[in-house]
Amino acid sequence: MSAILMSGKELSDVLNEKMKKSVEELVEKGVIPGLAVVLVGEDPASQTYVRNKEIRAKKLGIHSVVERYPETIKESELLNVVDRLNADDQIHGILVQLPLPKQINENRILMAIDPSKDVDGFHPINMGKLFIGQPDRIPCTPYGIMKMLDHYGVELEGKRAVVIGRSNIVGKPMAQLLMMKNATVTIAHSRTKHLQELARQADILVVAIGRGHFVTKDFVKPGAAVVDVGMNRDENGKLIGDVKMDEVKEVAGFLTPVPKGVGPMTITMLMYQTIESAKQSLKADQ
């Protein structure tokens, strides 16, 4: 048996076509969705992420603004930037690229973003809405994973799900979204005892632990759907996931590859939420 590969790249291409049409419809009504990305410093990974977001936005017809600032920027100056973007009617989504320099309190910056423009879904108000079962803006990676599971027909209701990783960005919101689809969810992490045995009980296994090839076939129940959120580099600089794909694909029923698995869907959902924010602003004006 070899797992069905759940390609985020292929699904992303399908959704891109739908989003292009949504943007065209908005433009006909006089609204161009606008996304502002704020980049501080010269971190190479951040530069790459921002460039990819900019390219994707332009392909979809989204008005993309990238504001670059030196690593020496003061927190008060960055807060002024966020305030200005909050007040800009042409901007429907704001993303402050993390990490930020040590002199800046990341939470303070994220808190300053207007929740209606928080297309990353990290604002406490949006997190709170998610956790009371009334989601509005949702963290993009878990949102993208849910779209993939739905697209590939992975059944969730009544199933056992294990999420390895407890971050606010992936693990916790992932668990909540799975629960909202009536899965029975366990959150595990690096200090969980008997992790391998626990993981092997999962019908859906989501791995976001940040350790290259951590999950081997011994973690996986035959036929399970395995979602690999990891982005790591091996000793040769090759991009690898948290899951040992060559082994696991012989046991799992479904598996996301790395690359071209979860990654493309994260950017896709960022664009989707920017477009939805533009739609909501149009309704508010009518």
From TrEMBL:
Instruction: Give all residue intervals belonging to the Tetrahydrofolate dehydrogenase/cyclohydrolase catalytic domain.
Output: 6-120
Q: In which pathway does it act?
A: One-carbon metabolism; tetrahydrofolate interconversion
Listed EC numbers: 1.5.1.5, 3.5.4.9
Annotated positions binding NADP(+): G165, R166, S167
Keyword Amino-acid biosynthesis on entry: yes
UniProt keyword Hydrolase, yes or no: yes
The entry's family comment says:
Belongs to the tetrahydrofolate dehydrogenase/cyclohydrolase family.
Describe its function. Catalyzes the oxidation of 5,10-methylenetetrahydrofolate to 5,10-methenyltetrahydrofolate and then the hydrolysis of 5,10-methenyltetrahydrofolate to 10-formyltetrahydrofolate.
Name of the protein in question: Bifunctional protein FolD
Q: Which organism is it from?
A: Pisciglobus halotolerans
Q: Which gene encodes it?
A: folD
